[in-house]
Write a structure and sequence with these properties.
Layout: E1 4-15, E2 18-24, E3 27-29, E4 33-37, H1 44-51, E5 59-64, E6 67-68, H2 74-79, E7 82-84, H3 97-102, H4 120-140, H5 156-169, E8 174-178, H6 186-201, E9 205-209, H7 213-219, E10 223-227, E11 230-235, H8 237-241, H9 244-251
The structure holds adenosine-5'-diphosphate and magnesium ion.
Magnesium ion binds next to α1.
Protein name: Amino acid/amide ABC transporter ATP-binding protein 1, HAAT family
GO cellular component, one term: plasma membrane
Keywords: ATP-binding, Nucleotide-binding, Transport
């Protein structure tokens, strides 16, 4: 049986009277690219914010690799192997693409690089190591030619690749992507998908929010659907494709 990496039980989060996430229980299997679909306002981003510790749940539990991580802050979850990108990435605009990647937290190794008592030689060695790793990651996401460009000057699609590069610095086991293809031109979307699939073959698990049903069907399996805060479907991509309610809701047929 495949290991469950990330799971929730009865997760709830309200904003005033609005139940943004309402009794959601999911189980993300190791090695999958799980698609999370649903109309605007369904609660998808809120679910990501709960999973990554950006928001605290009102009720329910979150387990990562079998451990209860409910209520842990984002950096603690990141250290345990959970990485995420944001629906609207905001890089440090005046810093270069490379510097933005070098600034990313390094994650699971748990090393404190810039501690107050670290000698200058050690700092230089660490900086060289982080720079080398950042360049490697930039090369992987095809942004190496833009390493010295100000991050504020790159396109929206390149910004999504930069976000992915920053996440990869931490070498997470599970990566949550919030609408990676939204507003990205087809050629950069293809690059992004190619990179996601390559990382998946290396063993990384993904949960991807998209409201493009076609994207989900082609690149994700299994598929989870939310509407009005609730889980309304959970199954294989093939089952999703054959589900009349989903088809009606998302394809307008
Ligand atoms: P999705 O990502 O599926 O489009 P969201 O999780 O962003 O949906 O939002 C779910 C609902 O919660 C929406 O009605 C949204 O307006 C509301 N919501 C999200 N974040 C907040 C917040 N910080 N404060 C108040 N309402 C919020
Ligand atoms: Mg959203």
């Amino acid at each position: 049986m495949t290991e469950t990496l990330l799971e929730t039980a009865g997760l709830c989060r309200a904003f005033g009277p609005l139940k943004a996430v309402d009794d959601v229980s999911i189980a993300v299997k190791a090695g999958t690219i799980t698609g999370l679909i649903g109309p605007n306002g369904a609660g998808k981003s809120t679910l990501f914010n709960l999973l990554t510790g950006v928001l605290a749940p009102d009720a329910g539990k979150i387990r990562l690799k079998g451990e209860d991580v409910t209520g842990l802050p984002p950096d603690a979850l990141f250290t345990r192997g959970l990485g995420r990108t944001f629906q609207i990435p905001r890089p440090f605009a005046r810093m270069s693409v490379l510097e933005n990647v070098m600034m990313a937290p390094v994650g699971q190794t748990g090393e404190r690089v810039w501690g107050p008592f670290v000698g200058a030689g050690r700092v230089r060695a660490e900086e060289a190591r982080i720079r080398a790793r950042a360049l490697e990651v930039l090369d992987f996401v095809t942004l190496a030619p833009l390493a010295d460009h100000p991050a504020g000057k790159i396109s929206g699609g390149q910004r999504k690749l930069l976000e992915l590069a920053r996440v990869l610095m931490g070498d997470p086991e599970v990566i949550l992507l919030d609408e990676p293809a939204a507003g990205v031109n087809p050629s950069l979307t293809a690059t992004l998908i190619e990179k996601i699939e390559a990382l998946n073959r290396q063993g990384k698990t993904f949960v991807i929010i998209e409201h493009d049903m076609d994207f989900i069907m082609r690149h994700c399996d299994p598929v989870i659907a939310m509407a009005e805060g609730r889980l309304v479907f959970e199954g294989s991509a093939a089952e999703a494709q054959a589900n009349p309610v989903l088809l009606e809701a998302y394809l307008g047929t």
